[in-house]
Amino acid sequence: MKLNLPLKLATLATVTLSSVLPFNTPVKASGFQETAVEQTKVIAIARPYGEGKYDLLVIEQIPGKRECWAETGANPVLVEPLLLNYDFTGICRRSTDSNGYSIRLDGNDLGLNYLLRVVPRDGELVLVGTPRAGNYSEIVLGSTKGLASGFMKIILNPGWQFTKRSYEGKILGHFYFSATQTALASGGQTTGTVPTQTPNPVANNGSTTLLADINTNVYKNNIEKAVSMGLVAGFEDNTFRPQQNVTREQLISMAVDAIGTVYKVDLEAQPKRDMIPFKDVDGSRWSAKKIKWAQWNFMNIGNPNNTLQPTEPITRAELIDTMRRMAIHLKNQLNLPRELQQTQQPVQFSDISGSWAEGVITQMSGYCGIATAIDEKGTKFAPDSKATRDYTAAVMVRVLECVKAEAKQANATIK
Questions:
Q1: Are 397 and 331 in contact (CB under 8 A)?
Q2: Greatest CA separation found in the chain?
Q3: Residue 329: helix, strand or coil by DSSP?
Q4: Which bin fits 73, alpha (ψ -120 to 50), beta or left (φ > 0)?
Q5: Which of 52, 297, 351, 381 has the greatest count of CB atoms below 10 A from its CB?
Q6: How far is CA 152 from CA 49, 96, 244, in A?
Q7: Whose CA is closest to 394, among 217, 250, 215?
Q8: Each residue of 17-48: pLDDT tens digit?
Q9: Is this prediction's pTM over 0.70?
Q10: Which H/E stretch holds residue 129?
Q11: Is the distance from CB of 340 to CB of 24 less than 8 angstroms?
Q12: Residue 105, CA distances (Å) to 111, 159, 366 in order
């Protein structure tokens, strides 16, 4: 059956404040740093969006500008987000989804590893970091100290503070909920025996190194680029596990993040056409917003019974079909011709005849060499084999580089 699917190598991680950090925990390796901010100028808010449902809203007041919010009461503190009543551009900064905020613990950005959620619990709303996979303990960051209707302030637990992501001295818009194990312990939070975590260093050429199991991998350079771009992460034991399968929702998430390196992705935007949600993708699932966005913007996903089967592995044929759709979407956004011009002679694969994806695989082989043989050797593509982490990272980077090169050439031609 043809399944037109894309999906994120959102590597699965867990940091726990009450149990030992598992040794298979992935940690994002990047060159990002963090910069301190004035704590009174940033607020975390539990925002109601449905019957008994809340999500996380982070607002930052720009100094010298009109107030972005007002606070009243206690236990809980009610918040009136004034920015809803006027154009807040240039007055406040806000982040409404995982693209705009993440947990940073002991210098490690855990955005790919943990999903920040606001959940009702024991008469209050609690801000928790939920592992994207695995049966491990959550991280509790703060709570509303009570329950009421409307917007409520989330009071961070001792040891946690707001910081902002920075890169090469430039402060970025991304917010961190930041802490160290030492600060959490001194603040009274129990911490188990947690192995020391150090972000993978960045080599002089800007590529992420020390992924111990990719040194001889044919896709090593592409993997390092994908890691440095934040599309995929290594694991805590400095491995990448290149032969591990990629699930459908992982590829969707990775594809959306890849698109986000070209233009800003708004996961809160409402679809302009009717969409039937997948029966097996609950709205609270970590990948739900990205799946919905992908379905609306560039995916043709679906099974006859309207299920996605998000945790099922994707095949190499499905991966390449996804890359084709992603490339066309990006070209549309950049006002480039939709056609995928052949940049090289396509490989005559020996095992794709009769496959539903035969034409797509051939086309994507000629388009910047995105579709290639297994381990870049011979003529077998293996369309029905499971897509692995190394090849998925490689083709994702190839698509981005190909589209960006085409856009650069077009701009040069216009000039």
A1: no
A2: 71
A3: helix
A4: left
A5: 381
A6: 13, 15, 42
A7: 217
A8: 333 233 233 444 346 788 999 999 999 999 98
A9: no
A10: strand 124-131
A11: no
A12: 10, 11, 44
